Amino acid sequence: MGEKTDEPFLRLWDAAFDDDEMKVSMLLAMGEDVNQQDPDTGSTPLYIAAQCGNLKAINVLISSGGADINLAKKDGATPLCAAAQYGKNEAALALIEAGADSETPRDGDVAPPLHIAVIKNNMEMVMTLVDAGVNVNQRWKEGITPLFTAAKFGYSDMVRLLIKLGANINAASKREGGATPICAAAQFGQHMVVNILEKAGADRRPAEALGFL
């Protein structure tokens, strides 16, 4: 989940890793920079706390320290991305309630939080995020939606869940000139998902036009 460091200027980073509420508060009172970043990765104390699911540290860093909730690592991942990646539901909820941007990053290799949860096939995290107000049709690079991602990987239960949560079954992406979730499922041979989508009313014509069905 992360490594502790002996660098004195990263003491707050270590305190967040340990979920040491008292030490975090003390260091902040001493003037430590709440948004200090690891020189190699760019991770912040809040990112580490979110990655570890350390709620006490998260709360102190935000409420007392005024941490930048959306300050990202060098690769673009935010603290909310970390919570989604490591399945820390309560941390994700705390960050969203504190105002975290659930739509970033929008481009690049690092996915936004809901897509991360889908890629990890973490249905509980998906429900946590959507129930907290995250857009179930959240767009990532090339305009793909979480349902597109789930369909591509053949996550049938995840596909059913996303449909139940209100996902747009015919949402067109920028891939292949407008590929939809059923296109992704058909292209990657996910026949069960194709059937699920068709039963839910998905239009098969885009997949037929692309030669996937």
UniProtKB/TrEMBL annotation:
Keyword list (alphabetical) reads: ANK repeat, Repeat
The record, for PANTHER family, names: ANKYRIN REPEAT CONTAINING, ANKYRIN REPEAT DOMAIN-CONTAINING PROTEIN 16
User: Any idea what this protein is called?
Assistant: Ankyrin repeat domain-containing protein 29-like
**Gene name, Swiss-Prot/TrEMBL:** LOC109466622
* Positions annotated as ANK repeat: 41-74, 75-107, 109-141, 142-174
Listed InterPro entries: Ankyrin_rpt (IPR002110), Ankyrin_rpt-contain_sf (IPR036770)
Residue stretches spanning the membrane = none
Taxonomic source organism: Branchiostoma belcheri (Amphioxus)
Q: What Gene3D superfamilies does UniProt report for this protein, alphabetically? A: Ankyrin repeat-containing domain
Keyword presence, Repeat: yes
Instruction: Determine the domain of life of the protein's source.
Output: Eukaryota
Concerning Pfam families, the annotation shows: Ank_2 (PF12796)
